[in-house]
Structures
1.
Amino acid sequence: MSTSWSGAPPPAPSPITPAGWLRVAWRGGALGLVIFAGLAVMLVLRLFERPICGQRRPVTPWITQGVCRMAFVILRIGHVERGQRMRERGAVVANHSSWLDIFALNARKRVYFVSKAEVAGWPVIGWLARATGTVFINRDRREARRQTEIFEFRLKVGHKLLFFPEGTSTDGLRVLPFKTTLFAAFFAPGLRDFLHVQPVTVIYRAPPGADPRFYGWWGGMTLGPHLLKILAARRQGRVEIVYHPPLAVGDFDGRKALARACEDAVRSGLPVVPESVA
């Protein structure tokens, strides 16, 4: 499992010490227990929530938020936010740096992720994504109409769909150009007049003395070693979520203009990239 963006390779990870393996064991065990206990509760609640409320999901997203908040407590990674979460109906777009983004963005805001279809088949992650209401899409023009219809339905029932317009994850120190394809769905006649899009910047602060890209997950990195590195860390950093003012879709001429405005807002929240890793 890896991502497609390739930047400067990170330094080779340090060997995990015996104390580090102890942290892997207790943090990993606690995290797994919280995730799967939350999943079990969610699946039971959905047996009642689905027939009564359909896609509105008024209860189960609170389980997701609780699990994600507990993940940062277990990992001892700080989680702070700035700005106001959007109250209007619409979507959220953010930069993408790591698998940790899923926890970071779900911890404070009720969102439903839009993900590439192959994620549905990933072990564990795929199960969790399906259970939490992720929208899976195929990058196939022939399915564009059907996917737009799914977006419209989910947005009209009040779901805030979140997607990563960069299309891949990075080292966390930059924002790649936004792909504009998915923005087209917001301009459907039944949506354009009331939808808003909130740009969000996700900033990772590395542990003291660590490489600034410590939490980034990119290029040929696989999930296992990256997860072990974070679980084993004696000192942790923090993640900051910056909520920018929502943008009204109706104020823009088309998807390219909206995507550009969102990209500018997300990039404006990111710290300056150090020259040594730019």
2.
Amino acid sequence: MNTRSATAGGDVQSAQPDVIVVPRSDATVSARLDRLPPTRYFRGLVARIAIGGWFEFYEMFMAAYIALGLIRSGLYRATTAGLFDVDGFASFLGAFFAGMFVGTVCMGGLTDRFGRRAVFTFAMLAYSLATFVAAFQHEPVAMDAWRFVAGVGIGIQLITVDTYVSELTPHRSRGRYMAFSILVILTSVPVVAVLSFLLVPQRLFGLEGWRWVMIVGSAGAVLIGFIRRGLPESPRWLESRGRADEAGRIVDLIEARVVAETGRPLPPPTAEASRVADERPGAWSEIWRRPYLGRTIMLSCFNFFQTFGVYGFGSWVPVLLYTKGVTLTHSLLYTMVIAFATPLGAIGAILCAERLQRKWQLVGCAVVVAIGGLLFGMARAPAPILLCGSAVTIANNWLIGIFHSYQAELYPTRIRARAVGFVFSWSRLSSIFVGFWVAALLKHSGVPAVFALISSAMLVIVIMVGLLGPKTNGVRLEELSR
């Protein structure tokens, strides 16, 4: 049996011999996508996009696990002599997050202009190659420069992945698919933890172990051809750009795949969902007008302060333990054990994504991070260190699994990437400074002071999301954008 061969958006549209073609509807592509049931086909698309995100999270969390290797090699110091001291480990973190800030705030428009698929590919190549070059640097300034370049690519990729997944999936399962993508992505954390535990203390083929951890992280450049193959452009983006025929051909194939998998005819699009697609050109200034103003303020505050918990804890766990008197080997061991709790947060997000309002899940996760962090700061014995560290890790990653979906669904397709880029850039901005603040607090006040800072930041999230965050579960993207 032959199918129609669509040409837009990539080679996913090539002929599929076992796929049943369904007649095209006059409804918008959004209405056609939103009526589709959850299927293995959608999980496959989301997983393929998530593989690209896997390497970006590997890059982000890698710093925590190679930190002691960088410090022991003499390339960096654990503390800093002052703000922006390039010899301190905080500059390694700061340069990376500065690059992410540039990528999110200055280049988010690339995704809205050139499409989700093309920018997804470009960004993955950029940060993978930059990481490979960084692995062979021997001076802090050169290392920081290449980490900055990698950060730019990852900043662009973060926006693109969130936007891509939210636009390809039906609205009733959007949160669950986003959480599933985060689950796939977060498996990178225990992988980098195990690799660091095995490699950082070693020297292989003349290279220090931490350099091998970075080289593994650059493998995304090799896999991009596989990931890109079979990945369609976002039909919603194509339609918003006035390319309705191309968008329709992609949805034709998606519908055909769903019908072939389920063996059931598709329900008709609802009359409300079938309204004419909005093809107005988007403007960044829209985020400062209703109904988006309150969302922009809330998400900007949320992103600025969430990094205190996610990266203030995640990027410093081995150093925090080492500062508390735990040996290098045990610090890496405890960190590796805690890292294995990472996917549990994403699993929780998958199970509850559509059952509980996403805004209240964010509030609950922030409360757990605040309390668990304070207890971790006071813990000395292995059991409470592992228990509290795991609780904070699970809550942080549950929060990640929910907020990536939450912020992407609060803006219309025409400005989604730019808007998400702007609000997300506040997290990159705060990340530049969090490392220096943590280093200063460690030097002058100790580990408990670090977690007092983290808990205060979590309180801000509880207030802002609780008061200003809209409810989004089960609501179509187009309805949320009205």
3.
Amino acid sequence: MIRNIQSEELTVELFSSFRRFQQVTKCWRKIDGQWTVVDNPFVEDWGREQYEFLVQCLRHTLASGGLVCGAFADGALKGFASVESNFFGSKGQYLELSRIHVSSDCRGRGIVRQLMDTGKAWAREQGAQKLYISAHSSVESQAFYHAMGCREAAEISAFHAEKEPCDCQLELML
């Protein structure tokens, strides 16, 4: 079940059944203007510190008028997405899909697609033309985003590119 998450629900305990784990072997990198797959093995596995920071970020998203939604199974959070409320781009066409994650034990069940659809619908209702996504560059993450219809952003946000220089800057038409 996908539903909006309220600020008072945002605690580290909300994420007690959520596992942000990803074993990465290959990532996309832009080298001499060309996208290339490179070896880049690492494991991403969040601990309490990362969840505490996440809770602060998601509370800020809600306080500034953005969206935080979650996918729940048997009352436990198994996925979440957030869309920020501030428009940007040369024509104010973008809203940022700032986060979208599914617990490692629930991937491959269509949850991330439902979260993406919820974020897209909300952004469209706000008047956005496109979602902007500073996306993890792993081959698997990029395969998902491209399957959803994302492409390289027509306008690269310097803020996002500098904040996460290894991310791929994408957009999704609404």
